[in-house]
Amino acid sequence: MSDWDKEVDILVIGSGAGGLMAALVGADNRADVLVVEKADKWGGTSATSGGGIWIPGSDVAKQAGFEDNLDDAFTYLRKLSADNVPDDNIRAYVDNAAPMLRWLMANTPVQYMAFPYPDYHAENPGGSAKGFRTHLPAPLDGKALGADIRTLRFASPAASLFGYLNWHFSETYELLYRQKGWMKNLVRNMAKYWLDLPFRLTSRKDRRLTLGNALAGGLRMALNRKGVPLWLETPLKELVREGDAVTGAVVEKDGKPYRIRARKGIVLAAGGFDKNQAMRADNAPLYPAARYSGGVTSNTGDSIVAGEAIGARTMNMQSAWAAPVFYVPGEDRGRLCTVERALPGCIMVNQSGERFLNEAASYHVVGQQMARRQAEHGDADPCWMIFDHEYRHKFPMGPLYPLMPTAMHGKGVRSILKKGRSIEELAGRIGVDPARLSAAVSRFNAGAAKGEDPEFHRGEAAYDKMYGDFRHQPNPCLRPLDKGPFYAMPIYPGDIGTNGGLMTNARGQVVDGEGKAIPGLYAVGNNAASAMGESYPGAGVTLGPALTFGYVAARHMTGGNA
Q: Could you say which residues of the chain have pLDDT below 50?
C-alpha cells in the first residue's frame, strides 16, 4: 500500500506511562517514533495516578536493605492471578521489572524509591509484609517541560489539594497524622504555588510535579530530548492489516483521516474502556457505572475495538481495578477512597445499616465486595461511611481536606455529607433503619474498645495496619464511634479503570483467536488484559506492568530482546 500520509518505525497510540516508555525505549534504540493522543491533554490515567509501581528485586530495594526473591514474587502473583493468564506473561513481568526500572532511572529524570508498603495479600505464599516492592517517584520540577506542562493532565482531585496543588505521598502522611513539620511543609508548598503568579493565573497548574505527574512528566522530558513528537487530539480510527501483519493505522488529524505506516510496529497504549458505558454493560456487568470510574474521560476502549476488528483476541473483559469511591456531583470521575477506611473511628454499612466487610482491606477487595453485594442484594450502591466527631476533626475524609471546614468545599461536597446528633438521628438522615444501624455500631464498639473486630477481622493483616493510626493502640484501625455528633458520606462501588483487554504474549505482542502473535501489533497497560487477572496484588501493579511491557515491547520491535 503506497497511499500513506506519513511513515515511522514505531507508532504509539496513547500517552500514558506504558506508551511513553515504549516510545522512549524505541527512540533510544534509534527508531523513528511518533506518539498520538486522542485527548487534548497528555499523560492519560497514569498522570492522575499515585505513580506507584510494583517492582520485585529492584536495585533501590536492595539499597534499602530488602533482598527479594523473584521466585517468591512469581509464586505470589501466580496464586492470585486468573488461571487463564499464561505463566510466561507473569514470568516476563517479574524478570523484566527490575531491569526496566534500572533503565528508566538511568535514562530519564524520573527517580523512584522503594517504600515499606506491604503487599495487599502479604500473608499469602511469596508475599512481602515488609513491603519494598512498591516504589514511589520523587518530585520533579516541571519547568523543564516548557510549554508542554500546560497540556499535562492535572492530578486526580483525590491526590491533590483543591484539585490542582500537587502533593507527594509522604506529605499526605504528614498532613494525615499531623507529623512533625507538617505545617511548615504545608505553608511552603502552598507558597511556592501561589507565588508562581504568571503561570498560576494562566494555567492553575502546579509546576512541582509529584506522583503520576512526576512519572508522566519525566518520561515526556526524556522524549523531548530525543525529539519524539506527541500529537494531541489525534484519535485512532482503525488499524490497517495487510496479510498476517498490522502495517499501520488510520488516525484523525485536523478533522480528516490520516494514514500512518509503522515499519516496526504499533503499540496500543490508550487505556481501557472505563468511560464507555455501553462496553461496560456488555462486558463488565459487575461494574456498570462509568461515572464512578476514576479513569480519564478519553478511556472509551477505541483501541480495543480496533484490535478486535482486525482479529485480535480479548481476555477477561469482565474485570476492573475495583475500588470504593466518593462521587462529588459535577465531577467527571470518582475519587478513590484508600486511607479513610482504615483509620480508627469509622465503619462502612450498607443501606440496611449493616457492616458486611473489613473496611481496611485493599481498595480492590473492598470494591469487589461492594460490587458483588450490590449485584446480589441491591443494597450497596451507595454504602455509607459512618464516622464520629473525633474522626471528622482529626482526619481528612474523602473530599473534606484537612484544616478546611465543610463550607469551603462548595455545594457539591457539602450536599453529600450528612450529620446527626445521635446514631439514630443520622440513620434517619441517610434512610437507614435506626435500630439496625445502632445495633451494628454497638457491636463494633464493643470489639473496638478491646482492639478487636470478631466479625470481619479489621486491623489484623499487615496491609490493614499500613493506613492505621499507630498512635492509637492496641489496634491502629479500631476505635469505638462514641463521640457525637456523627457523620455519614456515601461511598460507591467503583473502579480506577478496567483491566481486561487485548490478549498479549510475554513480549507484549497482541495475539489472534488461535493464540498466535499478530506481527506488528503490541498492547500495554489497560489496553492489554492484565497479567494480574482479576487480582490486585500490591500498590503499583497497574503501572508496573504497563512500564515493564512497554519496555519489553519496544526492545522486541527494535531487536533488543528478540
A: 1, 401-409, 562
pLDDT digits (tens, 9 = 90+) for 446-476: 999 999 999 999 999 999 998 899 889 999 9
Decide: helix, strand or coil at residue 365: helix
**Contact of 237 with 42, CB cutoff 8 Å:** no
Beta strands 245-253; 208-209: pairing state? unpaired
Q: Which amino acid is at 372?
A: R
Cell output for 120: 495487599
Q: What angle do CA 248, 249, 254 make, to 5 degrees?
A: 135
pLDDT of residue 193: 73
Nearest alpha-carbon partner for 17 in 47, 54, 53, 56? 47
Cβ(158)–Cβ(336) under 8 Å? Answer: yes
Return d(Cα 17, Cα 269) in angstroms, integer. 9
Grid cell locating 68: 527479594
Question: Over the Cα atoms of the chain, what is R_g?
Answer: 23
Q: What is the DSSP track for 148-199?
A: GGGGBPPPPGGGEETTTEE--HHHHHHHHHT-TTHHHHHHHHHHHHHH-HHH
Strand partners, 141: 208
Taking the C-alpha atoms of residue 405 and residue 130, their distance in angstroms, rounded to an integer, is 36
Query: In sequence order, which ranges of 247-337 are alpha helices (DSSP H)?
Result: 277-283, 302-309
Q: Which residue has the cell 465531577?
A: 331
pTM over 0.90: yes
How far apart CA 187 and CA 32 sit, in angstroms, is 45
* First-to-final CA distance of the chain: 27
